[in-house]
Design goal:
The structure is a single chain. The protein is an alpha/beta fold. It folds into two domains: 87 residues, Arc Repressor Mutant, subunit A, CATH 1.10.10; 227 residues, Rossmann fold (3-Layer(aba) Sandwich). 48% of the residues lie in helices and 20% in strands. It has 16 helices and eleven strands. Strands 4, 5, 6, 7, 8, 9, 10 and 11 form an eight-stranded mixed beta sheet that branches. A three-stranded antiparallel beta sheet has the order 1-3-2. The radius of gyration is 22 Å and the shape is globular.
Length: 332
């Protein structure tokens, strides 16, 4: 593999301009199931081609392109996944397969084709293209809404480990996962803390696919909008919610959360926090949220100001070892 940063600037510029080819190539690689086929072993390119009904010469050229970008390692006609490529398998912890597939879907691609609209207006290109918010579109188009919610569940599984490793919920009697999707995070917390009562709160069409059947005696499923109200609890969780919205909308959510907190309760918001020299994933998602949703990632100072406007005081930013942090807050 050739390190792109060692190439002459003109070559680096060309590689940046042809990034669309990598997005599509990763999508096809995943859709064909090649990362799962290779697993941790090497296979001959003609054998891979024969198994998948592909042209061996074209497949070799495809792998050669991917090898120059660090996805696979090509030695003669033997191909294996690089450490980077391992995250494209569906069976590994932290798999990015579902998320990278989403990026290649039409609504995501068309939105990014109209990024200039977002730059001129500060608003969602998705909403301009489809004339409705993304959440409405996903509800009307389950062919995109279903895989999107599946990816959110995958992220929840990653976040659940982080929450359980990082935060002690033993002081609470009740917890509400606000915008909690199918409930995997809440399920994990309830499993660890058997005395805790839980509430899963999200839009009705989302919570209809919840995963909390085994906790019927300890979990309440509530459909509704966090712009209207939030169920009352000792602890409220906002996992990857605030970055979906601009400051005015995020403030509405936080005010409703502040009103719903029981005395002495805590709000835990898990979001990326933009920091100088921080994780580059956060810089991408900041722009991605603008294009898709009109939302944004925020700096620590911007978080502080937003929470204070909602009557909440941030107690601490808890590092997680990844691009997200847990923001612990209480009512002022």
């Amino acid at each position: 593999m050739q390190n792109p940063s060692t190439n002459p600037p003109i070559v680096q510029a060309y590689q940046l301009a042809t990034g669309f080819a990598m997005t599509r190539s990763l999508s096809v690689l995943i859709r064909l199931g090649i990362p799962d086929l290779l697993n941790e072993a090497a296979m001959a390119v003609p054998e891979i081609a024969a198994r998948l009904g592909l042209d061996p010469t074209a497949l070799f050229r495809f792998f050669r392109f991917l090898s120059m970008n660090g996805v696979v390692i090509l030695e003669g006609d033997q191909c294996r996944l690089s450490p980077v490529g391992q995250f494209l398998r569906r069976d590994v912890p932290g798999s990015l397969a579902k998320g990278l597939e989403l990026l290649s879907y039409e609504p995501w691609q068309r939105s990014w084709e109209h990024i200039e609209f977002s730059l001129r207006t500060g608003n969602s290109a998705f909403e301009e293209v489809y004339q409705m918010p993304a959440w409405t579109y996903f509800e009307k188009h389950p062919e995109y809404g279903k895989p999107f919610n599946e990816w959110m569940t995958t992220l929840s599984k990653m976040s659940a480990d982080t929450f359980l490793r990082t935060y002690d919920f033993s002081s609470f009697s009740s917890i509400c996962d606000v915008g909690g999707g199918h409930g995997f995070l809440l399920k994990s917390i309830l499993s660890r803390y058997p005395m805790l009562q839980g509430i899963l709160y999200d839009l009705p069409f989302v919570v209809s696919g919840h995963e909390l059947e085994e906790f019927q005696d300890r979990a309440t499923i509530a459909g509704g909008s966090f712009f209207e109200k939030v169920p009352t609890a000792d602890c409220l969780i906002l996992k990857s919610i605030l970055h979906d919205w601009n400051d005015d909308k995020a403030l509405e959510i936080l005010k409703n959360c502040a009103a719903a907190l029981n005395p002495g309760g805590k709000l835990l918001a898990m979001d990326m926090v933009i920091r100088d020299g921080g994780n580059p994933v956060g810089y991408f998602y900041d722009l991605h949220m603008l294009v898709l949703l009109g939302g944004r990632e925020r700096t620590g100072e911007e978080m502080q100001a937003l929470f204070e406007q909602a009557g909440l005081q941030i107690l601490r930013f808890i590092p997680t070892g990844g691009p997200q942090e847990i923001i612990e807050a209480e009512k002022m």
